[in-house]
Every structure is written in structure tokens, then in C-alpha cells.
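Worked example (supplementary).
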Amino acid sequence: MVDVVSPAASAPPALRVEELVYDYPDGRRALDSVDLEIGQGERVALLGPNGAGKTTLALHLNGILTPSSGVVEVGGEAVSNESLARVRQAVGLVFQDPDDQLFMPTVAQDVAFGPLNFGVPEGEIPDRVHRALAAVGMADAADSYPGHLSFGQRRRVAIATVLSCEPSVLVLDEPTSNLDPAARRDLAEVLDSLDVTVLMVTHDLPFAWQLCPRSVILDAGRIRADAATPEVLADSALLAQHRLELPFGFDPGPRTQ
Amino acid sequence: MHIPDGFIDAPVAIAAGAVAIGAVALSLRGARRELTETSAPMAGLTAVFIFAAQMVNFPVAAGTSGHLIGAALAAILIGPYAGVLAMTVVLSVQALVFADGGLTALGLNVVNLAVLATVAAWWVFRGVFRLTRGRLVVAAAAAGFVSVLAAAGGFVVEFLLGGTVPLAGDTVAAAMFGVHAFIGIGEAAITALVVAAVAGVRPDLVYALRRLRSSDPAVSPAAAEKVTA
Amino acid sequence: MEGLYLAGDSRIHRLPAQVKVVAALFFVLVVVTTPRERVLAFAGYAVLVAAVAALAAIPPLRMLRRMMIEVPFVVFAVLLPVFGLGERVTVLGGVSLSVEGLWAAWNILAKATLGVAVAVILGATTRPQDVVGGLARLRLPALLVQITGFMVRYVDVVVDEATRMRTAMAARGFTARHLNAWPAVARSLGTLFVRTYERGERVHVAMLSRGYDGSAKAWSLGTSPAGPTVWATGLALPAAALAVAGAAWWSTW
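After joint prediction of all chains, the assembly is encoded as:
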């Protein structure tokens, strides 16, 4: 495992998953003894083909799914019924389709939804909403109807809906899917400016290369690789084995940042 | 088509409003059982579906076409209580946002199209489903047909009690039931075809099957967990 | 969802949605309880409605177009004097009309038209999302507020999906002209339901992820509460209607 951002010695990892097994209700095994530890402030890409179990893993990280066996810890605290509200506040999940994430009639209501449920006093809500929207460059959209925003704007507002909960970990499911190149660049800038731990489920290898120093490959429910992103992307045999592919002409040299 | 303001006199319209409020309150209690914790988004998206489905034209002949009312479909797909709520919201949004259906006639429209149609559809569905030993399509068709007649029946009663129009009650009744028997055939066909289509791909989404066939292993409670899988 | 909304910044637009909904309902209640013989009262109501429409800056033609929704009932009303029962009068040299039918036609036309006009003004000056907030402020049960909110939020999404499905069918040569198109159209509706329901499932997961506990607090956020002055402003319309009704009553017109 590559420690790119070394966490303070005493701080517990932001996320820790140990021997996580999950079987679908029909008995198929979705996750097969997954081990993963993500330090505070790390940015990690979770790569893998369709059906690898990436989204299923993400849904365990804030207790939407309950493991068949194994442990999930958030900031050192095990996910359980008792810790559920704290865990869901601490781990912000951004789903793939912003139309699923943005279910309220207005943007501001959507951004306020989490904080209101997590018991933030109503007096602090407007400020929270404003800061979260400002962080993704959408402060002017507070009063809008989500259907009037572009897809890229909706994606950014979707991120604001969890930022307003002030999470310590952001889990993004395919954040660049369906984005045009300009919206993709805007999103990269937004994500790069955030001061949180990030786990990003993606097929978009250049995006992972740009933002995440570390990459993990999940395939058929198991972790297959866990290393520095340039190293993972340079291993063409590994990529091919897990149906991952760099865009034509893309050279994953050392990151220049 | 929804009753406008002034078509039925004020006392009957207000009484219907009270009946509608009572029925909706009962449905709110019942829906908690039907939908467990998934309630709001499922009932909400079903209301959206009914609204969108009403906009789809089914060609009849010579350029004319009909469309779905949807009460029977709602009852079968998400259950009678949640169905009443979804239909009530559809009618309320049509009145408040689209000026379709009078504001003071909302109670009348809810009683006819959301309450009577949905509840009658559910009873008939359940009866026919048991009688035919689980013939889903037949039960759905019967429910669709009866839902329209039940709504028409509600209108006839309201008309007899508070009609502002000098037409003989029996004439109106005969005309309403005649026309609506015809409309009911269309509703029966659409309801049966749509329910069959849904049951073909995701039988676990059909409330009536979950409820009435709970011993059937093909529709096990496990299917409900597909939600997040 | 757009509904009938016409963007604007008039005083009517600025009134909180809950006030407008209640005012519209009370106004129409006054209208429908007015005996049809008080013809001048209806003229008074029409003046009030026209004044509010003017305050809201709704172009008259637009207003009329939106009111077309009541045309089927107009046709029905026009036929009433022909088919109505009871005493008849002869007009235009030989056309026999039912007196009671004439009154009934007038009653329906006047009341339904005033009702639809007020509803059009309500729709034109109130964004659908604010109607949801207004209903939440009127303490509608949480589940009903939420269902209404999802409806306002997702109608466009689902209608778009239905349109894409229809386009895909048309691209493969499908035309819906006869009864034999029904199975295919119904199948597409079945698919639409499955997709819509699955979206509901995903929305539910997204809500749980953000601590959803069933309450409807968030749905009224961003809508303004209405103080006594605002309520008084809004309820001036039904109050004026009541005054008109009273005047018409005493003057025995």
C-alpha cells in the first residue's frame, strides 16, 4: 500500500474496511473479503469493470447496505444501527445520476435536506447552504428548479448536497459520466479545491490520474491492486485483465502537479 | 375530464370535500403499512407515472384517441391506500398548477377518481384474482373496467344530490354509464396490458402480486432488497 | 415542472403561495355559493378577477388561451337550453329553449369560467415548487407534501423519458394509428413504470444517505412565512367578493 498523504500518527483512518463480504439476496457473492484503508485527506480512485461491486462497496460505507460479514469503520467508529446517523453525516455519497440525488423541488431545499435531518439548527441552514453551493461554484442557483440546470451544473449541485452535511469523506460514484469536456474540467477544479478525503468510483482513468494519487482495482468482488495511480495505469497487463483501458494516446507519465 | 366549479352545487361539493379529507386521512394511515419506509418516493414517482401515462394517447378510430385514468393501475401497482394518495396528488396538482378541475370541485374529483375508482378497482381485482386463481390479466382488466364505472357512479350520485342542470336524473345516469362502459373497456385493456408488461419484467414491483401471492416463491420478500443490489 | 407559470415580479407573484392558494379557494367558494339569479354579482366578480390578472401582468390573450381547458363544459352548457327540461321559451322566431336550461347554462358558464380564471392566475403567478412549499406551510400531512414535491420535481424527467421511448419506437417505424397499436404502447408504459419505480428506489437510497427520517421540514425551506399583513393582503380578494355578494343581495338585482 502506498502512503501518499501520511496521516497523523494518532488519527484513525478515514475509512477502514476489513474482510467485508456481501452476498446479494439471491445468493450471488458481490464482495469477497474486501480490505481497504483510506487515511484522512487521501484521494483514492476505485477502478474496475462494470459489475465489479464498486457501487455495492460504496453503499456499505454509510450503512445503506449491511455486510454479510466483516467490518466497516468510519473515522475509527464501526458502522452499526447505533452509529448510523453519525456515519451518514460523515460519509457523503454522491450518486451517479444527479437526477436521483436532486429529489427536492429547489436546489436550496436539496442542499438543506441533509443538514436538517442531521439536526443542524434551522438558523444555521442558510449559511450552510450558501457555503456548500459556493464551494461548487453554484451559489447563484439556490432558488432554481434542478430541471433548469445543465447536466454538469446538476452534478456539481449534487456534490453540494453532501458538502452541506460537512462530511469527512466524500464518496463519488462515476462523477464524470455523461459530462462534456468543459464540465469535466470544472468538476476536477471543484474536487481539487475540497479539503476532504475522497473515494472516487470511476472508469475515467485520466480523471483518476489527475486527481487521485492512489488507485485501487476492484474486480469480481475482490481488491486486485492497490498502488500509486501512475504505477497502476502504467501496468497495461493489469489494466487489460480487468477490462480497464486508457484513452488512445494517453500517456500515464509521472504526475506533474 | 375533471368537474369544474359550479357544476355541482356548493353544499354537495363541500360535503364531498369532507369525504375526500376523511378518505385521504384513512389512506395516510393505511399507506404506512403498504409501503413501509419506502413510502414517499415510491408513491411520488408512481403519481408522476400516472400523470405521464395520462398524456399517452391510445388511438381508437378515425383520428380519435383515448387515454388512461390510472386509478386501477395505481391500486394494483402500489396498493389501494398509496394509490388513493397518488391519485389525490395527481388531481390536486392538476387543479392547483394546471387549472384543470375546479378548486371547489377538488373534493368531488378526488372522491370519484381517487377514492371510489381506486378502492373499487382494488376490491374487484382481489375478488377476481382469487376467483380465477391468480389470473392477473383478467383481474386487472376487471379492475380497470369497474374503476371507470365507480367514478361515473360517484358523479351520478353527486349529480342527483346537487346537480345544477335541468336534466332528468335517469337520463344522466343512463348517459354516464353508457359512455363510461365504453371508456371502461379502454381502461380495462390498457390496465391489463400495462400490468402484464410490468409483471413480465419485475413481478416484485406489483403490489397486488406481493400481497395476494405471498406464498409464491417467485415473488419472495428478498426481491424487495433488489433496491440497492 | 413549469405548469402555467409566467415569470414575473408583480405583487401577485410575490405573495406567498399558501396565501394565494387559500385566497383562490375562498374566492371560488364565494362564487359558487352565489345564487345564479344575482347576475350583477357575477359581473362584480369578473371585474375583481380582471383586476387581479392586470395586477399580475398576465397578457389577456394568454389568459384566454389558458382558460380553453374548460371548453368541453362550455359546449355542454350551450347544449343545455336545447335539451333542458321544463318551461320553454321561443327565441329567434321558432327556436324553442328550456328556461331552466338557460339558467343552468348561465350558472355553469359563469361559475366555471370565474373558477378557471382564478386557477389560471394562481398557476401563472406561482411556481409549482412554491406551491409545494405553500402546502407544507399549510401543514398538509408530510407524506402528501412529499408526494407532491416528487411530482413537481420528476414530471419533466419522466415525460422526457417517455418522449425518448416514443422517439425510439418511431425510429423503428412504429406508428400508433389503430387499435392494434395498443399492446406496443401499453408495453412501453409498462417499461416506463419500471424505470420510474426504479428511480424511486434510487431516490430513496439517496434520501437515506442524507439521514431521511420521514419529516417534511425541507420542503417548506425557501418559501416565506406569511404574517398577518400578508394574509390580509391576499384575503382581500375573497373579502371583496363577499362584499360584492352582500351588495348584490341587498340591492335585490
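Two points are worth noting when inspecting this output. Chain B touches chain C through 73 residues (CB under 8 Å). The beta strands of chain B are 58-59, 65-66.
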